[in-house]
Design a protein that fits this description.
Number of helices: 5
Shape: globular
Distance between the termini: 19 Å
Helix content: 25-40%
Order of helices and strands: EEEEHHHEHEHE
Strand content: 25-35%
Strand order of the largest sheet: 4-1-7-5-6
Bound molecules: magnesium ion
Radius of gyration: 16 Å
Oligomer: single chain
Number of strands: 7
Largest sheet: 5 strands, mixed
Structural class: alpha+beta
């Protein structure tokens, strides 16, 4: 028998560089640097997408949206996340909640957290209290601590829909 509750974990990290917009959870955050990547580099959306896909037993975003595919150049990752939600729902799952930790030395995310949560809630069909989002510094250690990268850990819980949806 298939278990009705499934959990998945996702992680992502992107380097910060000049000349890029900083986009996290689909929200543009004013900063002198942005995340490098084939897509818009939104590590929050990528980590959450992998958590959802993993929980549903689907391939990861690297396989589904390869960075060698020109279709995904500068792709909006919040749109990819929307697509991932559709794939997960097509497999019969409903997203119950999502939690994530954004590891970032600067900028401070506190001012943008509500907007980021709202965007994720819209795209995932969740209420605000079903989205967890915390900003943590790396206490000055490693590439994240030196302000060279932003990382994100995410976890998602899914329920297999019954006939009542
Ligand atoms: Mg990524």
């Amino acid at each position: 028998m298939t278990e009705r509750i499934r959990v998945g974990i996702g992680y992502d990290i992107h380097p910060l560089e000049r000349g890029r917009k900083l986009i996290l959870a689909g929200v543009e955050i004013p900063f002198s640097l942005g995340l490098a990547g084939h897509s818009d580099g939104d590590a929050v959306c990528h980590a959450i997408a992998d958590a959802l896909l993993s929980a549903a037993g689907l391939p990861d975003i690297g396989e589904l949206f390869p960075d060698t595919d020109p279709r995904y150049r500068d792709a909006s990752s919040i749109e990819l996340l929307k697509k991932v939600r559709e794939m997960v729902e097509e497999k019969g799952f409903k997203v119950l909640n999502v939690d994530c930790v954004v590891v970032v030395e600067r900028p401070k995310l506190s001012e943008y957290k509500d907007k980021m949560k709202k965007r994720l809630a819209e795209v995932l069909g969740l209420s605000l209290d079903e989205i967890g989002l915390k900003g943590k510094t790396n206490e000055g250690m490693g590439e994240v601590g030196r302000g060279e990268a932003i990382a994100c850990y995410a976890i998602a819980l899914l329920r297999l829909r019954d006939d009542k949806g």
